[in-house]
Amino acid sequence: MPVLRSAFIALSKNRTLRSFCENTRFGRRMSSRFVAGMEIGDALRVAEALNQQGMLVTLDSLGESVSSEVEAHSAAEIYHQLLDSIERNKVNANISVKLTQMGLELSPALAEGIAESLATHAHSKGSFLRIDMEDSSLTQVTLDIVRRLNARAELKGSIGIVIQSYLYRSQADIEQLIAEGIRVRLCKGAYKEPPEVAFPAKADVDKNYIRLSKMLLESPIYHGLATHDEAMIAAAKAFAKEHGIEPSHFEFQMLYGVRRDLQRRLVGEGYNVRVYVPFGREWYPYFMRRLAERPANVIFLAKNFFRS
Ligand code: FDA
């Protein structure tokens, strides 16, 4: 399985296949299980349907690693429109943003400026900006930007971050983030990382996930536990019960199209569940990372494709 994971992560960077998939009807049909659609309207329709099922939503306008300042600003513009549409349509949703889509690799100052304007806009609408975490070469700069923005009185609590349990550094990062009152989404991590920075064995990633989720649950801040792993979820539920932590103090987060049965079950049990809903034309790298997590999805998608 690690071989297949690496193969899909390598494929996620293949430009020819990407262009073929994103620009054909065949490709778009394949992606529809994990991607809400191409336009803001598609994302809002999906979000409304999820709200009706008692779920919260975070919306992701797909795209990463832009190659010009103009592209970064147009990516940001979609998010500004999204924040207005969320308010106009009274959807219970916030936004998730990747800093490389906001120009981080061109200039950290550019990405920080855009993140600041999005956080300000989100704050003015009573919404929230979550900065997704990308590969480990960007961990420090992403943390620095989020910490600087959250330190500003007018943005406090309007911006949050993601921490990955596969990184050795994550426990120290979480201690600092909790001390500064920053909301964390904890996930296992979706990129291919070397053993110098990340646990190579899945058992260690899982053990660390449980250790870090306990730190988050015990803190006074509202955090998100992002996982589809029933063992992680059971451990969090048991820890919360044992320590008298109310279900309203945290949320579980899952990806659109993944373990919908589990999402519904948790809502039925009284837990907060937020679904991460991606939309847009640049879905290919996101889609490939989902296949990397569970190569059996290829068979599942193929079956559904030929059935319909
Ligand atoms: P794990 O991979 O161990 O899977 C446990 C079980 O969940 C599997 O056995 C299967 O049943 C199910 N499952 C998991 N993935 C599936 C899939 N794709 N299709 C079908 N079933 C699947 N990563 C990152 O590096 N930066 C980020 O910012 C984010 N953001 C983020 C937000 C949200 C809301 C979620 C849920 C996840 C992320 N991730 C992420 C991705 C995360 O790091 C991780 O790669 C996936 O969530 C898979 O890990 P699990 O915790 O689900 O466990």
Can you describe what's shown?
By secondary structure, this protein is of the alpha/beta class. The chain has a single domain, classed as Alpha-Beta Barrel (TIM Barrel). It has 13 helices and eight strands. The protein has an eight-stranded parallel beta barrel with strand order 1-2-3-4-5-6-7-8, surrounded by seven helices. The longest helix is centred in the first third of the chain and has 20 residues. Bound molecules: dihydroflavine-adenine dinucleotide. Dihydroflavine-adenine dinucleotide binds next to strand 4, strand 7 and helix 12.
Strand content: 5-15%
CATH architecture assignment name = Alpha-Beta Barrel
Number of domains: 1
Global structural class: alpha/beta
The CATH class name reads: Alpha Beta
The residue ranges in which pLDDT falls below 50 over 5 or more consecutive positions are none
Q: What are the secondary-structure elements, in order, as H or E?
A: HHHHEHEHEHEHEHEHEHEHH
Helicity level, as a percent range? 40-55%
- Evaluate the radius of gyration: 18 Å
Mean pLDDT: 93
What small ligands are held by the chains?
dihydroflavine-adenine dinucleotide
Q: What coarse outline follows from CA principal-axis ratios? A: globular
Describe the sheet with the most strands: 8 strands, parallel, barrel
Number of helices: 13
CATH-defined topology = TIM Barrel
Please provide the count of β strands: 8
Distance between the termini: 29 Å
Strand order of the largest sheet: 1-2-3-4-5-6-7-8
